[in-house]
Amino acid sequence: MFEIIKSGGWMMLPIVLCSIAAMAIIGERFWSLQRKRIIPAELVPYIWQLHRDNKLDDATIRRIRMSSPLGRVLAAGLLNRKHGREIMKTSIEEVGRQVAFELERYLNALGSLATVTPLLGLLGTVGGIIRVFSDIAVGGMGDPGILSAGISEALICTASGLTVAIPSLFFHRYFERLVDGHVVRMEEESLRLIDIMQGNREDV
């Protein structure tokens, strides 16, 4: 592997660094965007039980807020439950936008890596071709080894850039869709909580 990277020329260094960054982001996002970490299944029933038992004090709401992103969103509504439906909804929407922004953390960077690495590969390819023609200009067409070295450098850079870009683009789209799903689910749970708190829906 080291020999392949070495034969790809100096442009392989930024491509390798991009691949390391992409793997780090993908691993971190897989860990952070787990459904159980974003939308704990037991949280909403727990809040409903506290509501029925009239045990929603400030300390409990603070614990709910610290528990998960969904907890942050619901806690914003719980803190304003005495001010009516519209105030609850507004406060939930404000915090929800902040949470959605945080869930998209590093996704722009991953998308940028998916865009940049093929260009780095292309730049390495151009460098390899330039090297081939420079060597031909100096030594002529007599040595096929000179040609093969430059062409090899060009092809390795192209392949390496695409190897990093393709999975980066795939996971970027996947995580975007995953975040959208989490946001929609949090909106549904928040609206249901508002309706129950304001007496517009029965707790089921």
Automatic annotation (TrEMBL):
UniProt keyword annotation of Chloroplast present: no
- Top-rank lineage group of the source organism: Bacteria
The signal sequence is none
Q: Where in the cell is it found?
A: Cell membrane; Membrane
- What Pfam family is a match, any one? MotA_ExbB
Q: What is its main location?
A: membrane
Keywords, sorted A to Z: Cell membrane, Membrane, Protein transport, Transmembrane, Transmembrane helix, Transport
Q: Where is the MotA/TolQ/ExbB proton channel domain?
A: 68-187
Q: How does it sit in the membrane?
A: Multi-pass membrane protein
What are the TM regions of this chain, as residue ranges?
12-31, 106-133, 145-171
Q: Which family does it belong to?
A: Belongs to the exbB/tolQ family.
Which PANTHER family does the UniProt record give? MOTA_TOLQ_EXBB PROTON CHANNEL DOMAIN-CONTAINING PROTEIN, PROTEIN TOLQ
The protein's name in its UniProt record: MotA/TolQ/ExbB proton channel family protein
Recite the lineage of the species.
Bacteria, Pseudomonadati, Pseudomonadota, Gammaproteobacteria, Methylococcales
